[in-house]
């Protein structure tokens, strides 16, 4: 059995477009995201990764339908999808969050070759994009745009 890392992805929507990054190492169009650091919650990792990879401050669109119980420290963002997949030398258990932007000025990081806001038709014909990422983007557009 290979090593399993916990990761997050942020499906960021702005009006009728979703933000994609062309990942430097994988050469795939993906959502901003990455590994959850030690002593970091998935929510914190999602916000950090979005800022590091895009320069965007984002906010979650979905929270637990149960709300925050009195013993819980903070309300928890609710992933709209999870995925267990291989990235070659190890596996990822990924939590995907729907987010919207608080600002729109993009800053591309060294972790991506390119960054782009894409609409429905562009997403449908996007090359080098895993099917599950394409399907998630189209789902979020249908739900929130």
Keywords:
single chain, 145 residues, alpha+beta, 8 strands, globular
Structure explained in plain terms:
The protein has 145 residues and is an alpha+beta fold. Helices cover 22% and strands 34% of the residues. It contains 3 helices and 8 strands; from the N terminus they run ββββαββββαα. It has helices at 42-54, 120-124, 131-144, and strands at 4-14, 17-23, 29-30, 33-35, 58-60, 81-86, 91-101, 112-118. Strands 1, 2, 3, 4, 5, 6, 7 and 8 form an 8-stranded mixed sheet that branches. The longest helix is centred in the last third of the chain and has 14 residues, at 131-144. The N and C termini lie far apart (40 Å).
The total count of helices amounts to: 3
Please tell me the CATH architecture by its name: Alpha-Beta Complex
- Structural domain count: 1
Rg (C-alpha, Å): 15 Å
State the assembly state of the protein chains: single chain
Short description:
By secondary structure, the chain is of the alpha+beta class.
Summarize the topology.
Elements: E1 4-14, E2 17-23, E3 29-30, E4 33-35, H1 42-54, E5 58-60, E6 81-86, E7 91-101, E8 112-118, H2 120-124, H3 131-144
């Amino acid at each position: 059995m290979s090593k399993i890392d916990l990761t997050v992805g942020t499906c960021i929507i702005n009006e009728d477009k979703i933000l994609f990054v062309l990942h430097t190492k994988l050469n795939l169009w993906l959502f901003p995201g990455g590994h959850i650091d030690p002593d970091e919650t998935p929510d914190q990792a999602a916000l950090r990764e979005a800022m590091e990879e895009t320069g965007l401050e984002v906010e979650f669109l979905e929270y637990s339908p149960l709300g925050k119980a009195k013993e819980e420290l903070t309300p928890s963002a609710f992933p709209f999808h999870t995925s267990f997949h291989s990235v070659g030398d190890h596996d990822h258990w990924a939590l995907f969050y729907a987010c919207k932007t608080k600002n729109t000025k993009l800053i591309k990081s060294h972790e991506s070759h390119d960054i782009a806001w894409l609409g429905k038709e562009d997403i449908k014909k996007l090359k080098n994009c895993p099917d599950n990422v394409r399907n998630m983007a189209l789902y979020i557009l249908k739900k929130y745009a």
